[in-house]
Amino acid sequence: MRKILAISGSTRHPSSNSNILQYISGLLPAGYIVDFFEDLDNLPHFNPDLDNAELPVAVADFRAKIATADGILICTPEYVFSLPGSLKNALEWCVSTTLLSHKNTGLVTASASGEKGHEQLLLIMKTLEARFTSETQLLIQGVRGKINPEGILTDASTAQQLKAFAMAFQELVESNG
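== NAD(P)H-dependent oxidoreductase ==
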């Protein structure tokens, strides 16, 4: 049994990013349990003064989910050429820990352009020492034109990219025990 924590960088419900995570979860084999973290907007603003024994409950719960996961999947939009503040805030709560160090990670940026946001996501996750490869990171540009109003992926090329991504993520998770 492999536990995967899926984090959408979008707080919109439903979002293209959540739809992409759902699609990826459907590509993973039996024995993979995907937990969709949906409390990104409930995490308090990062404050190093609160990063102590009396950690806010929402942050402690978030960290516990990361700690028990065999892998992390992040799919995020790009806002103003950057990561959404809520996702960056969540990642900042991990800076003083080693929770993401060597954690098997799949990173997807799905947005209109996404290039700058993707660069920042890769830099932050590399800084946090997350374990990912060139095959377990993906930039999907023009995502809104690739998903229909019902949230179904309709673009065949993107479907192929996500299939390759999911296979690479599975290999990464399984290569690490």
